[in-house]
Structures are given as structure tokens and as C-alpha cells.
Amino acid sequence: MSVDLGTTYLGLRLAHPIVPSASPLAGDLDGLRALEAAGAPAVVLPSLFEEQIEHEEMEIQRLMEFGADSTGEATFGYFPEMVDYNTGPGAYLKLIEDAAGTLDIPVIASLNGRTSGGWTSYAKRMQDAGASALELNIYFVPSDPGQAGQEVEQQYLDLVTQVAESVDIPVTAKIGPYFSAMANMGVRLVEAGAAGLVIFNRYLMPDIDLDKLEVVPKLELSTPSELRLPLRWVAILRDAVDASLALTSGVHTAEDAIKAILVGSDAVMPASALLRNGPSYLGTLLDGVRSWLEEHEYASVEQAKGSLSRGAAPTPEAFERSNYMQALVSYTGPAV
């Protein structure tokens, strides 16, 4: 009997749980077709950034105000008011529309930012363009020492509430791990309207160029060691929230994907592994998951899912502090 690999993520029934995470591979229609041909059960588009929205709106505003004082007839500018003008990044909305009309799999759009601004209107337009769901990629570093943790958390919650209330499609929150009480925050995000959580967003750290004495961006792909942090928190949140959970960061092998499923992931989202090996590597991951489940006599992904979550694990304390001591005392160091 073959293994049933199906899973449900954000209310979407998917053929299997390995969903390519947002990356340049999904940045155009050809790339999206390649991912579907490789077996992707859904695709997550790269994010539309808040800065892109703001930049385009400012450029249009500048255009409308050009020459406004040159004649009496142009007192209010030559162009319509902003509210009546299509200022959105049309290419992104067109990509959603083309992908939704071309692919036979769900298309998940993504918004990246930190303030409400135009998010709600763009979320609605993404829905109208054909997105099946929306990934809200909340990304900001609270560097103001006067901003308390409660304010930061409320900013996340307000964003989720505003976007979720503006659309009818499911909204998932892609977040980082840097909360003082991660489990509590996960529960509150779901209560605020998130239909799912993506664990975790990778905060890309800048570097220093010693020759130019400048701060420079530096993108590095993930490593397998990064898997452990999201594994722990998916395991803890699995039984704490009534929402879909997706694990991303550090998924490089079929074994990584299996671990993600066992702790309770509804979707497993690799990006770096596919960037390194190409879309066809998705099939390698899926074959490995299928073989492991068959070898261990699981009838389905659903049967395996969450069997090692915190609530189901034989030693749930292993996800908490006792494991810290055990790890330290069990390390003997290199042989001499």
C-alpha cells in the first residue's frame, strides 16, 4: 500500500507537505512553471516589500505635483488624486494573476514590511489577482531603546488583525524567534486572525566592508544546523495553537523534512537547498520522505505529523531546559 503524502495547509489540500519557500526561483512565471513541473504542491511568491509600495507611491505623487503651480488651471496638479490612481507595483499583481491563471497549484502571495500603511489595500488586491493565501512576512528590528517589548508585540498583532480583516483568503504570519514568550505570542497571533504561522523568518545580518569602511548587505544561504530552532518551536506550538504550521530555515535533506513533519509541520518549506540544487531537488526530498514513511510503516503523512510534538513526545521536557543540561554533560569533546 502506497503512503498518502497529502497534507492540509491554510485550509488548502496539498499533494504533499514540501512547499518551496519564497525565493528568486518563484520570481517569474518560468520559474513558477519549473517548480510546478518539479512537483511543488503550492508556490510562495517572493515578497512585495513595503519599501516598494512607498517608493512607487512617492514617485506617482511627485509626477502628479509636477507643474502644479505653473498655471492657474494646474493649481491642484495635472493628474487625479492618489486615491483614484493605480499606484501599485503592477508587475507583482500581474505575476499573481498570470500564475493563478497558468498553474494548477495554489499561489501564495507575500507582503513584507512592518507598518500598516498600504498593506491592507495591497492584500485585497493580491486576493483579487488570484492569490489563494497570503504570507505576511513581518520583518523589522526594534532598535529604539525606548520601545518596550509589549509595543513591538502589539505592532505584530495589529498588522495581522488589519490584514486578516481586509481579505477573505487565509493569512499566515511569517515571524522571527525573538520574542520573550514565543509560545504566548504564537497563540496571540492566531487569536489576532492568523490562520497559520511560518517558523521562522531568517533575519539577514549586515556585514562590514573593511576596505570601504561601510556597512554592506550580505546574504548567506541557510545551513542544516539552523533547523533545530524551528524544530523546537513547531513542536511546542503544535499543541498550543489551532492553526497551520510551516517550518522553514535549515531544511536541506529528506531527513530534515521528516523531522519537521514529526514535530507537527503541515508544510515544510525549503529555499536554500533548492537554490543550491535546482527545482528538481524537490523530487529528491519527496522521494526520501516517502521511502522513510514506508520503511517505518506509516500509512500517511497525517499519521506521522505531530507524533513527536511536545505534547506527544515520550519526553516532552527534552524540548525545554532539562535537555540543556543533558546536552552539556553528554558532550565529551574531541578525542586526544
Blueprint of the fold:
Elements: E1 7-9, E2 12-14, H1 29-37, E3 43-44, E4 48-49, H2 50-65, H3 90-102, E5 107-113, H4 119-129, E6 133-138, H5 149-166, E7 171-175, H6 182-191, E8 196-199, E9 207-209, E10 214-216, H7 228-237, E11 244-248, H8 254-263, E12 267-269, H9 272-277, H10 281-295, H11 301-304, H12 321-330
Parallel strand pairs: 3-5, 4-5, 5-6, 6-7, 7-8, 8-11, 11-12
Antiparallel strand pairs: 1-2, 9-10
Helix pairs in contact: 4-5, 7-8, 8-10
Brief descriptors of the model:
single chain; 336 residues; alpha/beta; TIM Barrel; 8-stranded parallel sheet; two-stranded antiparallel ribbon; 12 helices
Describe this structure in words.
The longest helix is centred in the middle third of the chain and has 18 residues, at 149-166. The protein has helices spanning 29-37, 50-65, 90-102, 119-129, 149-166, 182-191, 228-237, 254-263, 272-277, 281-295, 301-304, 321-330; strands spanning 7-9, 12-14, 43-44, 48-49, 107-113, 133-138, 171-175, 196-199, 207-209, 214-216, 244-248, 267-269. 39% of the residues lie in helices and 14% in strands. Strands 3, 4, 5, 6, 7, 8, 11 and 12 form an eight-stranded parallel β-sheet that branches. A two-stranded antiparallel sheet has the order 1-2. The protein has a two-stranded antiparallel ribbon with strand order 9-10. Helix 4 packs parallel to helix 5 (149-166), helix 7 runs parallel beside helix 8 (254-263) and helix 8 (254-263) packs across helix 10 (281-295). With 336 residues, it is an alpha/beta fold. Helix 6 links the parallel strand 7 (171-175) and strand 8 (196-199). It has one domain: Aldolase class I (TIM Barrel, Alpha-Beta Barrel), CATH 3.20.20.70. The model is unreliable at 57-88 (pLDDT under 50).
